[in-house]
Specification:
Layout: H1 3-41, H2 48-64, H3 69-95, E1 103-109, H4 115-124, E2 130-136, H5 139-147, E3 153-160, E4 164-165, H6 167-174, E5 179-187, E6 191-194, E7 205-208, H7 210-215, H8 217-223, E8 227-230, H9 234-244, E9 249-253, H10 255-259, E10 264-267, E11 277-284, E12 296-304, H11 310-320, E13 324-333, E14 336-347, H12 353-365, E15 366-376, H13 388-392
Parallel strand pairs: 1-2, 1-3, 7-8, 7-9
Antiparallel strand pairs: 3-4, 3-11, 5-11, 6-9, 6-10, 12-14, 12-15, 13-14
Length: 393
Amino acid sequence: MKSTELEEIRVKITELDSNLLELLAQRQQLTNYVAETKIKNQIPVRDHKREEQLLIRLIKQGKKHNLDAHYVTQIFHVILEDSVLNQQAMLAANANPGSTLSVNRVAFLGNKGTYSYLATQKYFSRRSGELIEIGCQSFAEIIKKVETNEADYAVLPIENTSSGSINEVYDQLQHTSLSVVGELTHPIQHTLLVNQETELSKIKTLYAHPQVFAQCSHFLAELGNVEVKPCDSSSAAMIKVAELNSNSVAAIGSEAGGNLYGLHAIKSNLANQKENHSRFFVVAREAVNVPLQVPAKTTLVMSTVQKPGALVDALVVLRDNNINMTKLESRPITGNPWEEMFYIDVEGNVQDGPMQEALEVLQAMARTFKVLGCYPNEEINPTKVAAVSALAD
């Protein structure tokens, strides 16, 4: 094929891509109108039956154009997820009229380029107002920034699918008056970042956050005789490698973060688990109201009386009220040896009757009890279409 013919085809592809973006923007605007209707009529955000019918119709239409059913499904899962998140954000803003700020000051760990920075960008991209980023060097500093009104929000990593819970953050949440107002799950894609072209065998020193080292322990074992140097954040590791400007040092972090410091990746997918995600809490000084149309989660912390079966009794309360527990984490109580504080995530809204009843019973039977926050559930599970395989045939 001649180069002129290739260029002509590329021009047509570029034009189609532009048209696709315009159509996606129009679709998004229409879903915003849908959200306004749901606000007026108290209609739930998700309608799984409607979503399934939509996907089946699109798969059948795609088949007429020789488009693979799984390809069509993947594309529209992303579109539907974006629609749901935008609608939830609109409903949440309507339920909390005083919470919309012209400027959002957000504290997070490290500087530009950390996973917390990327998560902050992702979460607040759906919120109105200018974003002011406040990088911090510790979780304690992040919390303090919000407590002293130097920041409006904090973004805190709470758990990772590879390395588990981030205990230091749980310990901070024990002693703060801040409320959890949001959550998000962000993919973590660890890469080996260098400042100069080099070979893997020449790297003698690695810089990264301790959590990153834990998530990439298998890769470190394969490297062999390499010195690992913990840093306060991924951005600190990247800055160090950029400053040293040596072909024997490297950092582990995201490729997008490395680009901000002039670093480039020489090896990707370093995590022990290839499906590696981190969950983040967004916290603020004031709690938020979550509309009943929006799927919600509630995080609470409690300690039980010291008697056999006390924790089981508490969990039975959730079961009896048909409340699904999604996480149970225990942490030592400072100053009380052998006693535990339990962090519990459940699916439910504190404004809902069964949840209110369960919380009242739990508070009465617990030694200490506190709701850390009720917030929109932003883990959007894609609607399953059982007929995909059949429709693909």
